[in-house]
């Protein structure tokens, strides 16, 4: 059991409907995934957020953009999130995004490479290596270095770089919350942990 017990879906306060609606950006660049009954739901994380619907609403606006409105490709987004989850040892976040990574074509071998001590040297494309370095630099120093910025700028525009920074930030906040609240991993996520 975690520090904050997840509220079951049927017991969520009515304000959680607004929080869940905020998650779905009005003009998504990336389509919402088809409803799949076997898809891990991550209900324990949402159940913890249900204790604070106003906060959940605010956070879901940001993470909804990172997932569905970002100018990054889904692959680029998931590489960033996996790197954050690995570096922050956020097992719950890792499990959710290992599943999502497979949905966007990231192989199991590439998922393992995300854990590399030097991800940029692991055989990624130039932009993927720069994104992984950027994630590390943001987590370590809260700033992308000039050389990494130059590498990112060679292939990404300003909006894409901004989306990368805010994706790392959004998932770093989530990693802090999941670890601090000791959110238990849902049974359907456990195989991905």
Class of secondary structure makeup: mainly alpha
**What profile does the largest beta sheet have?**
none
Order of helices and strands: HHHHHHHHH
Q: Bin the helical content.
A: 55-70%
Counting DSSP E segments of at least 2 residues, the number of strands comes to 0
Describe the structure.
- The chain is mainly α and 193 residues long.
- Helix content is 60%, strand content 0%.
Compose a concise summary of this entry:
By secondary structure, the chain is mainly α.
Keywords:
193 residues; mainly alpha; 9 helices; 60% helix; globular
List the helices and strands and how they pair.
Blueprint: H1 15-23, H2 43-49, H3 53-69, H4 74-87, H5 91-103, H6 108-114, H7 126-141, H8 146-155, H9 158-180
Helix pairs in contact: 1-3, 3-9, 4-5, 4-7, 4-9, 7-8, 7-9
């Amino acid at each position: 059991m975690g520090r904050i017990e997840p509220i079951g879906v049927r017991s969520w306060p009515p304000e959680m409907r607004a929080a869940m609606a905020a998650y779905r950006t009005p003009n998504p660049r990336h389509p919402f995934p088809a409803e799949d009954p076997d898809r891990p739901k991550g209900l324990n994380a949402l159940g913890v957020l249900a204790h604070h619907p106003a906060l959940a609403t605010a956070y879901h606006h940001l993470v909804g953009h990172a997932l569905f409105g970002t100018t990054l490709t889904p692959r680029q987004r998931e590489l960033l999130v996996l790197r954050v989850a690995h570096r922050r040892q956020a097992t719950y976040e890792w499990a959710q995004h290992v599943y999502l990574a497979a949905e966007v074509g990231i192989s199991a071998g590439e998922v393992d490479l995300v854990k590399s001590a030097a991800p940029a040297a692991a055989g990624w494309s130039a932009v993927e290596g720069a994104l992984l370095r950027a994630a590390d630099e943001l987590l370590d120093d809260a700033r992308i270095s000039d050389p990494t910025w130059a590498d990112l700028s060679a292939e990404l525009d300003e909006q894409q770089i901004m989306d990368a920074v805010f994706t790392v930030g959004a998932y770093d906040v989530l990693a802090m919350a999941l670890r601090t609240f000791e959110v238990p991993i849902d049974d359907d996520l456990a195989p991905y942990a």
